[in-house]
Amino acid sequence: MPCNQIPKPFQAWRPWLSWFNDSLQPNIADLMLQLNPLLGPVKESQWHDQQLLSGLGDLHKRGSYANLLASEWLIAQEEPDEFIRRAVSYEHLFLAPTQEKSKANGVIIALFDSGILQLGVSRLVHLILMLLLDIRSHAQGSQFYWGVIQSSPKLKLFHDVNDLKLLLNTRTTKLVDNNHLDEWHNYIQQAKLDYDECWLIGTNHQKIDLVTHQVNIERSIEDYNKLLVKMTSNMMTKCCQLTLPNEIICAKMVLGQFMFTGHYAEIVKKSIVPINVNFKPLISANGNRILTYNGDNTHIYFVNLSDLMKVKNICHIHHYHLNYPVLGFDLLGKHVVALIQDNKTFFIWQPNRPRIEIAEVIHVDKNNVVIALLWLFNGHGTDILFVDAENKLYVLSFLPKSQEKITKIYKIAENVIALFKLSDHQALYLYNNDKQQLLINGHNINCHFFYCLTTLPNLSNQQFFITAESLWLQGFGRLAIGQAQEWQIYTAENDYQRVAIPNEWQVFGLYYDNKTNRTDFLVINQDRKQVALFDYSNNNMDVCFRSPNKIINYSYNSLAQSFSVTTNMGELILYSFVSQSARLRLYKAN
């Protein structure tokens, strides 16, 4: 949201929002909007238009005898009668005092606790309050001073964005004690500042006489993505639950990276071999790795990106040459696993490790590759789950470093139509029973996990998408079933909503925002050049990615909240909803 496109409610804040990167401005404005009601209305300064005596000026025939001219007092000494006559006749001359309007017009003071209890996202409240108090001081013609409680008492006049960074960079492990508060009390009294408001901002501080407003900031126990903010004054007490942006954006703001470039800049890199545009790239659960093929499917193409929280943007690309047909593969952490076939024998393949033979026969081949394959930790070793060409779900359990042959394959379910990863340890799968009901069950999930959906469309040729993996680990998450423009989205076993997707858009994923509890469809338009989030509750389409080239293939990982696209120009692009930007752009080598 560029500054010149700020909605009307935020127009008055434009000068302050302009200090931040365009992509940060909506988050800053949202936090300001949440906290602003705590401050209460702006009142006129009690020092406004106060007249101060600045000296003596013109001569007048009336006035206080304290301001009588010295020459008049000389007459009183030499000629008392003349002095009395001049008094009766109003002929005495007086110096009139000069009145001048107060230049201070009052002051707003904020004292911030920068101790260990306020480290982390609590500093976001400091940041936003500093902005709001400066805006408040401008509104009432005051001046805004600030200081850090644990530092030597000295107030700083707020000037610009550098004050925000200075506050955020002031950190200490000291807790606020009575000595700190007493020193500030004495300092402000001796400074004789005509202040209207004095704000004490931190956690669980005792009230002191000089304070007019006190702000208490604590992390919410019920919802870790929220802060509890309580403002107390002599007149009222107000509270709010502050909803935070995602952790990446919070980290940037707390570090004072308001005009960041390097962290969110996409990596542009030339691919050594052509990318297979007909293959849907596989994205890791953390969004930092992508797995794809080269043009003739002879190399696995493994891209490693640095974590979003790292200072440097790094991209490493590994190539693994394969002489055998790959039937399916997956990512787990930093590692790749593949199911391959050599003649009539099947193997589990991992880079730089001996392949592990599967002794039993499985119903897959190069013409009927696995429908889905997942690699999971099981506590003692690893599990590989796969759905074969007959829609049967199997699990292979083994120790990768010690076994040379897998002798046991366990069948979990039949008529399996979808398999999803919930974490590095857990998965869920969808399957039909004899009554053509859709059942949902879990693998390695501790809680009771079994659902039966009875109100369903015809399941033939339907697509299935899940999201809100963290909710699935506790109960029911989000599930979408449908095709083309007609969908059903489930939020519970017997609770669903029918959704019509706008024409010229096609669904390829389901996005869940755990902060707003909102679920959107991830869609691509008919001309294959735009990707958007469709908010079906408000019938709103929000385009998040545009490509000048036609998108040939695409894939989405709900755990990573990232999608990839490959274009007709041989590009591979990774977009992250966490950073709200493209992270990687690989283009075809000449």
Structural account:
The protein has 590 residues and is an alpha+beta fold. The protein folds into three domains: 3-46 and 103-250, no CATH class; 52-100, no CATH class; 267-587, 7 Propeller (Methylamine Dehydrogenase, Chain H). 15% of the residues lie in helices and 40% in strands. The protein is built from nine helices and 39 strands. The strands form nine sheets. A seven-stranded mixed beta sheet has the order 5-4-3-6-7-8-9, with helices on one face. Strands 10-39-38-37-36 form a five-stranded mixed beta sheet, with no helix packed on it. A five-stranded mixed beta sheet has the order 15-16-17-18-22, with no helix packed on it. Residues 1-5 and 50-54 have low confidence and may be disordered.
Topology readout:
Layout: H1 14-17, H2 25-39, E1 51-60, H3 70-78, H4 80-88, E2 94-101, E3 107-112, H5 122-139, E4 143-148, E5 156-157, H6 161-169, H7 178-191, E6 195-202, E7 213-219, E8 226-233, E9 237-243, H8 247-254, E10 267-270, E11 282-283, E12 289-293, E13 299-305, E14 315-321, E15 326-332, E16 335-342, E17 345-349, E18 356-358, E19 372-377, E20 382-387, E21 393-398, E22 405-406, E23 409-413, E24 416-421, E25 427-432, E26 438-443, E27 450-453, E28 463-467, H9 469-472, E29 478-483, E30 486-492, E31 495-500, E32 505-513, E33 518-525, E34 530-535, E35 540-546, E36 551-557, E37 562-567, E38 572-576, E39 581-587
Parallel strand pairs: 3-4, 3-6, 6-7, 10-39, 18-22
Antiparallel strand pairs: 1-2, 4-5, 7-8, 8-9, 11-12, 12-13, 13-14, 15-16, 16-17, 17-18, 19-20, 20-21, 21-23, 24-25, 25-26, 26-27, 28-29, 29-30, 30-31, 32-33, 33-34, 34-35, 36-37, 37-38, 38-39
Helix pairs in contact: 2-5, 3-4
